[in-house]
Structure formats: structure tokens, C-alpha cells
Amino acid sequence: MQELLYVRPMTDAEREQVAAGLRSTDRFTVRRCQVVQASARGEPALGIARVLGCTKQTALNAINDFNARGLAALARGSSRPHTTRALFDAAGRERLREMLHRSPRDFGRPTGVWTLELAAEVAWELGITAARVSAETVRATLAAMGIRWRRAKHWITSPDPEYARKKAPATA
After folding, report:
1. How far apart are CA 116 and CA 94, in angstroms?
2. Across the chain, how many H-helices and E-strands are there?
3. Domain extents for the chain?
4. What is the mean pLDDT of each run of 10 residues along the chain (172 residues)?
5. Cα four-point dihedral sign 30, 36, 42, 44
6. Is 3.40.50 the CATH number for 12-74?
7. Alpha-carbon dihedral 11, 13, 18, 22, rounded to 10 degrees
8. What is the predicted pLDDT for the residue at 102?
């Protein structure tokens, strides 16, 4: 049978901080304080979860975090990842730049205008990236390179040599 997990014995100062946290305006802090206080009373994580309307894992996460970090566990931290993995290495970024300086038709596409989605798809097919990437990843990579992506404009042209003369305003 799995051993039950409870918070470590708290100091008087920690008890006061947990009690004060119950009056916080931040819902995260209130929930964490409720879990810690209930666990200190000897309630198991499953019982705490049922009373608070959360999952057992949420209660266990709060207990483990409090045991590891103390009062710092009562405040919401950043949701930003600690590390990010660059999907385009330096060589890949240069290959992406070179690819975008060519027409999509060179890569067997029926259009002459790049979109971020199309660039992501072609980059994966050419092996510039090891996995499929999103259009946002391509945009962020270009931004990191100092290139601002703007929507392409479709220009209507004609192969007719007289096109410019015919489209010029008629002068009478």
C-alpha cells in the first residue's frame, strides 16, 4: 500500500503565514494554504481533494512543493518553461532564410507566395527541422533573426507584353 503524504511540521511563523494566506485575494494562494492547513491537521490528500473539489494530484503537488520550498510554495510562480529548445539551429536558420528567398514553386508548391504554414511544412520536408514545427515557431525564429514577417501581397500581373499599356488610364 502507498504511504500517505503529509506536510512537514510547521513553525509558528509558517502557521501564521498559512492562516494569513487563507484571506488572500489570489485563488492559487488560498487553495495552497487550504491544502497545507488540512494536511497539517492530518487529513490525507484524497480527503483534501474531495473537500476542496480538486484532484488528488493537485493536493499532492501542493504538499510536496510546501515540503520542498516552504512558504514560497504558497505563491504562484511563473508558468514560463525553464528552458526552451531551439528547433532551428544556426545552420537551420540560415537554410530557412535561403529557402524563403526562393519561390515556393521551386519546391513543388502551386503558389508563388510564402505563408508561415507553408514555410513550416517545406522546412520539415527539406530536413531543416527534425520534427514538424508550427507557423508560430517559424515566425518566432524569423523574429529572433531580426526579420519581421508580414502578410504577402498578391500582385496581379499578366504575361501580356501590352499589359501595362492596356491598364494605364485612358486619356482622351
Report:
1. 16
2. 8, 0
3. 12-74, 90-144
4. 79 94 94 96 94 94 94 89 77 93 92 92 93 91 89 71 77 57
5. positive
6. no
7. 150
8. 92
